[in-house]
Design goal:
By secondary structure, the protein is of the alpha/beta class. Helix content is 27%, strand content 27%.
Length: 756
């Protein structure tokens, strides 16, 4: 039998025509930063005297499609070049088997001519003889160039699969002072690109397939050498982690198969196991660092307030996605006096009944308001008048636009003494308080008189107040409980009256006054300290859409509180298949931070248990260790559809017994019996027909919370003592008796025992 040579089965997969489905160079940054990088490319301009030569691979291994992308990259770079005979000159040379000059550097003197001729370059084909093209430049220099009297930049666009040696000619070019950029195309061999590129190589190796990114990378490197400049000084070149990928053919052992071979000297045929392999293309990843220019974005300054989301629209434009309560406001800003076009006349009682102390308190309040409300962009104008028997306009409306000057003028207003003739002061304020040249019609800002008094009037106020309101004056009153009824008569509504109990309470009225001046919704318990926790039903019975409606409702409620560590603290717990603390009481110190965090609370799904959630709040949220403040009113608001509330009665009672108020907001066409049992002795239950109707019950919820905030507080409920310490009330305060092994005001430190 004839002998047979050893057979080896080889399977070859030809994938060279496959286009990559993923980027071959990927910068690991956020989508927002990618936008900044793209936009920054259009802000870099190169106008120095420099010669730029594009050496473009036109071989068959690149292919016509990638060749066209190489030309597109060159055109994009030319957009940033100040092309002219005395500034930037551009030339192009294509290579395949041999180099071919497309146009020398001195051919065209305008960017339009250069780009038009670059686009008209025809694909050449042939082998990838990169080394021959480099040797051509070593012999002849830059065609049409200025003989190294200006910086020379060579931009090699290739797949890095040369069929000759490139290291030696590339090194010689760089030694002559030529700056070489190696720009990959198709499936580049990055090792060869690194050999071609100048140092530092990370800044001189790019990928033409991502045109805007590659253009930015090239111009960023040139800007560091003063060849190019960026339009904005705030733009900076920064390093970013990135990955470079390529497609390589590798041989892989697949297995063994029977094969036959002849034996020398005999006619026998031997059977043996022979290995067989396959060839396949694999994507190889090369970690790298990419240097890119990024300019500050429109959203970097966080222009959207009160939990609004900034959406960039270009480098210098943006729009705000606002919570419902601020949907119509620029930058989601509240309608405070800086955004409200008003003329305000503060009318200060300066009579003997008010006393000097009362007058000084009123002046201090006006100063607080001015400091809090007026700024460079304010559209509110302020004036101040005092009265006793007669009205004296001390600071005409709008006389001072500079806040320090206005404050100094307030200091100089003297106390008058005498009778309290509030009615006469209102009549004179309406006639001459806003000047004789007051504007009329639509051009006139809203006019407001803010009356501050602690003394009942000694003349009639009803008639003058009615005539003042008839002149379209908004009358607001600020005073003590002794003049509440009179102020309500003057202003025409209890909603336009602010009552204070003492000096500190007066100063807390500033924000509420701002709201009334610009007709904001009535504020919540702005001056009351409160620890407030919302518990949201995030179970499958509620669903993601209704959960989003609850989030919107909580955001709107939070807008009504002065969120900071000294006044109102807000926490949020969500529950479904599990209980999760979205954020604790001491997590966020501002209202804007709370609004953002509410928007980010997760929908959980699963089967919810209101009882488990309330126990979690009792044990792990409403505690001193987790930010609850001793001596501060505490409230929990539960929003639920009612399913899973059957086990909540005992936890609700436990919270209430521990000094925590609980309001249950039940949503659904029929109020479930399980929810009715949670109302408690003060009927702390609110029924809402649908989740869409929640917004109509916001005022009722705020009223309940504010009512609870005014209730007396037991300093030992919940107990501020940790580690099972005992809280003992003592002389209007409390103290903690600690268990063995603990010490400190709240039993939070381990005691040190001496060895016996």
């Amino acid at each position: 039998m004839p002998s047979f040579p050893l057979l080896e089965a080889i399977f070859i997969f030809l994938l060279s025509g496959v286009r990559p489905s993923h980027p071959l160079q990927e910068v690991h940054v956020s989508r927002e930063t990618i936008g900044k990088i793209s936009a920054a490319s259009k802000m870099i301009r190169c106008s120095a005297a420099v010669d730029v030569l594009f050496l473009i691979d036109g071989s068959y291994s690149v292919g016509k499609g990638s060749f066209e992308r190489s030309k597109h990259f060159a055109v994009m770079v030319c957009d940033a070049l100040d092309i002219g005979p005395e500034r930037v000159r551009v030339g192009a040379l294509q290579f395949g088997s041999v180099p071919r000059l497309e146009f020398p550097l001195d051919s065209f003197s305008s960017p339009q001519e250069v780009k038009a001729n670059m686009k008209s370059v025809v694909f050449k084909g042939g082998r990838t003889e990169t080394g021959l093209a480099l040797k051509y430049l070593l012999r002849k220099g830059f065609p049409g160039g200025r003989n190294a009297s200006v910086p020379q930049i060579l931009i090699v666009v290739t797949d890095g699969r040369s069929q000759g040696h490139v290291a030696a000619p590339a090194k010689q070019l760089k030694e002559r002072g030529v700056t070489v950029f190696a720009v990959g195309v198709r499936f580049p061999r990055w090792e060869e690109l690194h050999v071609l590129a100048s140092e530092p190589r990370e800044q001189h190796v790019l990928m033409a397939e991502q045109v805007e990114d590659a253009t930015n990378g090239l111009l960023s490197t040139l800007s560091k050498s003063d060849i190019c400049t960026v339009a904005s000084p705030d733009c900076q070149v920064q390093p970013h982690p990135c990955e470079r990928k390529t497609l390589e053919t590798v041989r892989e052992l697949v297995g063994s198969a029977l094969c036959w071979r002849g034996s020398r000297g005999t006619d026998a045929v031997l059977v043996a196991l022979c290995p067989f392999s396959s060839w396949k293309r694999v994507v190889l990843t090369h970690p790298a660092t990419c240097y890119r220019t990024a300019c500050p974005g429109a959203c970097d300054s966080q222009p959207c307030q009160n939990g609004g989301t900034c959406v960039p629209e270009g480098l210098d434009r943006y729009r705000c996605l606002c919570p419902p309560a601020f949907g119509g406001e620029a930058n989601c800003a509240p309608k405070l006096s800086p955004e409200c076009r008003i003329d305000v006349l503060f009318l200060l009682a300066s009579s003997a009944g008010t006393t000097l102390d009362g007058f000084l308190r009123a002046k201090a309040f006006v100063k607080r308001f001015v400091q809090a409300s007026l700024g460079e962009d304010s559209r509110a104008r302020v004036g101040v008048a005092r009265y006793s028997g007669e009205l004296m306009v001390a600071v005409p409306v709008g006389e001072y636009q500079d806040v320090p000057d206005l404050l100094r003028s307030l200091d100089g207003i003297p106390f008058g003494g005498g009778a309290t003739l509030t009615g006469g002061a209102l009549r004179q304020a309406a006639e001459r308080g806003f000047g004789s040249a007051a504007r009329t019609g639509q051009d006139r800002p809203r006019r407001v008189v803010v009356l501050l008094t602690e003394s009942p009037s000694q003349d009639d106020v009803a008639g003058p107040a009615r005539r003042a309101r008839a002149r379209e004056l908004l009358l607001l009153g600020v005073g003590t409980e002794a003049v509440r009824a009179e102020l309500e008569e003057i202003t025409g509504s209890p909603e336009r009256v602010l009552v204070y109990t003492g000096p500190h309470d007066l100063f807390r009225q500033t924000r509420e006054l701002q709201g009334k001046l610009c007709s904001r919704p009535p504020p919540g318990c702005q001056a009351r300290s409160l620890d407030l926790v919302f518990a949201l039903d995030a179970s499958a019975s509620v669903g993601p859409e209704n959960f989003a409606r609850m989030q919107s409702f909580v955001r709107s409620c939070a807008l009504r509180f002065d969120v900071n560590p000294d006044v109102t603290q807000v926490g949020l717990v969500v529950y479904g298949g599990q209980v999760r603390v979205a954020f604790g009481l001491d997590t966020h110190a501002t209202r804007a931070a709370v609004l953002r965090a509410v928007s980010q609370a997760p929908y959980l799904g699963g089967v919810g248990s209101a009882g488990t959630a309330l126990l979690h709040i009792h044990d792990r949220v409403m505690t001193v260790q987790r930010g609850a403040r001793p001596g501060v009113p505490k409230a929990v608001v539960v929003l639920t559809g009612g399913l899973g509330a059957e086990d909540a009665a005992v936890p609700v009672r436990k919270l209430r017994n521990n000094g925590v108020s609980v309001l249950v907001v039940g949503v659904g066409p029929v109020l479930r019996e399980a929810l009715r049992r949670l109302a408690g002795p003060r009927d702390s239950l609110l029924h809402v027909a649908t989740y869409g109707d929640l917004r109509h019950h916001q005022d009722a919820l705020i009223e309940w919370i504010c009512g609870e905030a005014k209730r007396p507080v037991n300093l030992c409920k919940p107990s501020p003592c940790m580690h099972e310490g005992t809280c003992i009330l003592q002389n209007g305060s409390y103290r903690c008796e600690c268990q063995d092994g603990w010490q400190g005001p709240h039993c939070g430190k381990r005691s040190l025992r001496c060895p016996q």
